[in-house]
Amino acid sequence: MHDIGRGCRCCSSDRFPLRHSCRACANPGSPKTTCRAGSIPRTSGKACGTRTSVVNIDRSQGIISMRTACLVYLILVGLYTLSMNDGWASEGWASPPVEIRGVWMDRNSIPKTEQGIRKLVRDYAGAGINIIFPEVVFNGYSAYPSSYLTEMNLWGGVQALDILIDEAHKQGIEVHPWVWVFRVGNANDKGGILTRHPEWAALGKDGKPISDGRGYWLCPSNPAVRHLLIRAITELAQKYAVDGIHLDYIRFDYEDPVPKCYDQGCRQKFEAEYGVDPQAIEPWTKSWLEWHMWREELINTFVRDVSKALRAIRPEIKISAAVVPDPQDSRLSVLQNWLHWAANGWVDFIAPMSYTSSTQDFESTVAKAAQQTGVLTFLAPGIGLLYLPKDPARMLEQVSASRRLPVAGVTLFASAYLDKQHLDALAAGPFRRRASLPFRSPETQAKKLLSHAQHLLSAADSPDQLDQASREVAYAKHIMDYLVYRRNLKEEVKPSPPNVFIPDVVIPIPEAKVPTISTPPTIDGSLEDEAWNAAAKVEIEYTALGREVTQPTCVMLACDADNLYIAFRCTEPRANAIRVSTHDHDGAVFQDDSVEVFLEINEKSYAHLAVNAGGATYDAKNYDVGWNPGWQAAVGLTAGAWVAEIAFPLVNLGRLPSAGTVLHANFCRNRVLVYQEAENMAWSPTYGSYHTPKRFGRLLFLGQRQMGPSMP
Ligand SMILES: [Zn+2]
Fold first, then answer.
1. Helices 114-126, 160-170: crossing angle, 10 deg rounding
2. How far is the CA of 319 from the centre of ligand 1 (A)?
3. What spacing in Å lies between the alpha carbon of 328 and ligand 1's midpoint?
4. Is the domain of 138 the same as that of 270?
5. What percent of the chain has pLDDT over 70?
6. Is residue 658 part of a domain?
7. Environment of ion ligand 1 (residues, CB < 5 A)
8. What is the three-class DSSP state of 709?
9. Would you say the ipTM is above 0.95?
């Protein structure tokens, strides 16, 4: 859509056509010039070195040749046409007039001199950036004088925030300070707040204030914590002419491996309301859901309170947050219900942190977030420059991907990775014309988009321009629908529970005793071997959500000194309906009729193996498909069932289970049904994703079989 990979027009380079060293110019004997593809008239088949040489004034004669004069005229006409073309770059890049183009400015990349700061902001303005998020509250410290937070002098006395605001406003850039909220310290430094008030820390279920090296967090139910944070944030908006406040770490720590917050305050408050001590709550029970919702609400109400406090003192201020991009995952993993904040209008835009090196993953992640967000708010997905190559091509691909989706722009993470190359690429491509921010007088922005779309339409000479006009009209409608939603929003919307299945009864973790066999089975897709007679046999009786299955599956287990042997007999009365669509190793075999095996490696990792009914295999360590241990699998058909047989070398688990050893494992089957959701079955129901090690069953290894007295 945006000419990615089309290559240079003036030489045969296949590099992304923004700026590159032209191959033709680099030939021996030619002056090496940086060629800006597209700035040269398209009809020229010559290399840029040749072209620039003809427009040079012949200084020895002091005259411009007629040929040169004609070329200058043509270039001027070209430039005029370009200026009338409303920023439609000759490379095919659109530059919409309304868009969020943000940069997270990490504190260490903010220069230490006034001159340096001003230059950086001017460079950003030159690249079309229109909003910056300078990191000025972090680890419970402020990077400016504060009555509530301990100031950390990062810039040798230079008041960076003052200078940033002054220069940004001169350049037409908005400043939304980036504020860490509940995360306030790390293993090396407890941070500015917890050093003074260690009793304010959120405690894990294990009673510790820090988990897995991930840092210290504040307890969000503590009134003193909430009071201090709101005072500190409103102070920032009162003392400085900031345009907004950008909330980060506005959530709990990751629930895995140790959930928070199990301090006395939270436990007592919850118990007073629900009659249960959170320490006694089992996962996937109704009490667990109540505890989950109760903790989510601590964050929800904080966002509401801070938003109200900020708008009370500065009605024009805009509030935003950096969030985990998948709304459901965000709730379950960090108790961050950001769709709910948007639904209540407590935030004005959201930056989902969709950092990935893969443009495809970026696009699918952002598409999902956008689809669920609808018109509730504006999204400016984060592009993780830290995961991308130094070459800006991939960044441009992700900008391009964002423009195929109903989102309001992008936010670049972060200034430490945003160098001149990136800025030049943005200035020459997608950000070549200045843009205004959609959340600032949205009616005006919708009108601006509509009139720009009309202009594009009247001048449209390419399908790309027509596409862009269509997108701008669609986004103008998005803005209007958003306005209608916000105007109709009278009462606080109540949060609904996350989409999890809470069973009436939690099935206990199953156990199987794995015998040791002396003759291994042949892995050929047939279960006729003698070895399987001696194997342990367990039935998969439940779906992953704990409902009864419709078709039985028998799993057989045995081992010897080298391998764990696993067989599945999958009863299937409709053999001709078995689906096999993937034949590639590590492909999406689970979308077919398939079986999956999960085997614990250690506390943090497990082997994930899968085989579809066609024999295609998949293996990964957790989600890492780069892990390819050697193992064998075969499939076969038998009367009324399909069969999978597996031999997995135990050395891949980093240990050889001895007698009495327990290995956590799960065995699952996916049965594809026509016109219905697949039936996903698990030996130990996981009540959610199969990737739930806490719900894996137990394999008890029996060790060497007792041999009878040897025959004479
Ligand atoms: Zn707490």
1. 30
2. 25
3. 22
4. yes
5. 85
6. yes
7. 219, 221, 261, 263, 266
8. coil
9. yes
Give the domain range for residue 631: 511-701
> How confident is the model over 305-323, as pLDDT tens digits?
999 999 999 999 999 999 9
Cα distance between residue 520 and residue 530, in whole Å: 9
CATH number, domain of 649, equals 2.60.40.1190
Verify that 131 and 69 share a domain, yes or no: no
153 and 42, same structural domain? no
Is residue 155 in a domain? yes
The Å distance, Cα 261 to ligand 1 centre, comes to 4
Strands 141-142 and 150-151: parallel
When mean pLDDT is compared across 45-54, 292-301, 630-639, the lowest value belongs to 45-54
Whether 525 contacts 636, CB under 8 Å: yes
113 CA distance to ligand 1 centroid (A)?
A: 41
Question: Ligand 1 centre and the CA of 218: distance in Å?
Answer: 8
Ligand 1 geometric centre to CA of 216 (Å): 12
Cα 252 to ligand 1 centre (Å): 10
Place of tokens 């007039």: 97
Same domain? For 111 and 155 the reply is: yes
The pLDDT of 551-560, averaged and rounded, is 96
Quick count: other Cβ atoms within 10 Å of Cβ 76?
A: 10
203 CA distance to ligand 1 middle (Å):
7
Over residues 538-567, mean pLDDT: 95
User: Is residue 87 predicted with pLDDT exceeding 60?
Assistant: no
- Burial degree of 230 (CB within 10 A; 0-12, 13-18, 19+): middle
Residue 15, pLDDT > 90, answer: no
